[in-house]
Amino acid sequence: MKHPALSPLPFGDDEGILSRLQQNTWLVELLLLVGGLGLGGVIAYLVSRGQWAIAAGAVLGIPLLIVLNRYPLGAFFLWCATMPLLPFQTVPPQVFWVVHRALIPLALILVIAGRLLRDRPYDPVKLGWPELMMVLYLLFGAVTVLATRKAPLLYLYELYDRMGVPFAAYWLMRLTTPDKHDFKRLLPLLLGLCLAEILIGFWARYLPGLLPPLWQIERMGDRMSGTFANPTPYAYTLSFCLPLLFHTALTRFTGTVRNLLLGVFGLGLVCIFLTFTRGCWGAALVMLLGLLLLYPRTVARLIVFGLPLFLLLFGGLMAQEFATALTRLETQDTVDSRIVLAHAGERMFALKPITGWGFGNYDRYDWQFMERVGNAAPTNWDVQYGTSHNTFLTILAETGLVGFSTQFFPLFWWAIQSLRVWRRMPRRGFWSRRLLAVLWLSILFYLVASQVVDMRFFWFQIGTWWATLGLIGSLVERYQSHEPRQIPAWLLLSAERNSR
Length: 500
Fold this sequence. Notes:
Layout: H1 17-23, H2 25-48, H3 52-70, H4 73-82, H5 93-117, H6 129-148, H7 153-176, H8 180-206, H9 231-252, H10 255-273, H11 278-294, H12 296-315, H13 319-330, H14 333-351, H15 362-365, H16 380-384, H17 391-421, H18 433-449, H19 459-477, H20 489-499
Helix pairs in contact: 2-3, 3-5, 4-5, 4-8, 5-7, 6-7, 6-17, 7-19, 8-9, 8-10, 9-10, 9-11, 9-18, 11-12, 11-18, 14-17, 17-19, 18-19
């Protein structure tokens, strides 16, 4: 559903340089020629220095630019397909320069340039307060880095990696205005990612010695984490895929295909259980309750038939896993550590509640605020290596209320707008209010899980969360009312009297 009433992006005017570029094709060709010669010189220099890998990447970048110019959302698809499968411990940093730092921002630049040049028809987009707050957050974060660090470059990179690229993913979703066809292209990717994480999760847990070197990384004991070192980002990655796959199974397929997709959904839930992470279990329960409200009959049948099978497995073949889960529920040591670390974050925020201690400075100062809390005392590990286990406390401590409010303003904005358009959306089908709801379930999983782990270390998860919020924004905007406001009757009457 397109909205012709939406106002276009306020980029450029018909009398400016963009219009002249459109009219003078020779100027565009000249710019391309200069750019091609410049790129050729760069490639020749890299080859002469023996940097063949970078030179090959530059050459392959040309066809990639052409593809991304034709379909910018492909950058997100490619990033989403590769980023989770590339552990930081085994992949060279140059790979992340291309995959994470360059891919999505490059696609965003191409979209903005295309809108400026009006090289093709674009759906109009109305940017507003959420996008402005995100820009303000980046500016504020950069200012805090420059004000608190003598050598700020490394922390500016961290700001770009942790928030700049995820914001770019959000803006890419907003400016490309994905439609039904884009969602349908995304779903096979999500299915492939989900199956890959399930397979590698079981592989790493039960046959770790047979893993390829790429995925032989240090993990947290026997807790399932797939291609990640930590089980929580693994569980969130599954939650990014599972609600959409569930919704797709019930709205687009029947018979065998539907049952297979529901089977993948069930396997994904088992993998979340095997993370043995209480925060992930709670987040999964929230997700299941949401699906129960959306699809009560189907979810109820899955619970009725799946629960006995679950108990049978964990009472027999997977009895050891069930015992581990019970042990995790009774573990108190990690709870005490989290209490001490959370208390330190609260004290940091209380001392500088407005602007915080500066972006990236949490671990620099948190040890100074650790103290005994009741029966929980800080250990040597807490002081030397302990960090925040709560994403929101980290944000509040580092950037204060200013950073927290500007960063999360888009979340609250789109939550309110989602409620406003809910009644206008179709009740049934793939493209319906249920699609909006399952996107929000992924958002909620992230928010709940972030209470027990600091997500700032996991770029892919931050990026998918902001991309999901951007998808929500684009979906909601299609159903917002953008009709011009009517002039109040009292004002018309007053004007009529004055004109007499």
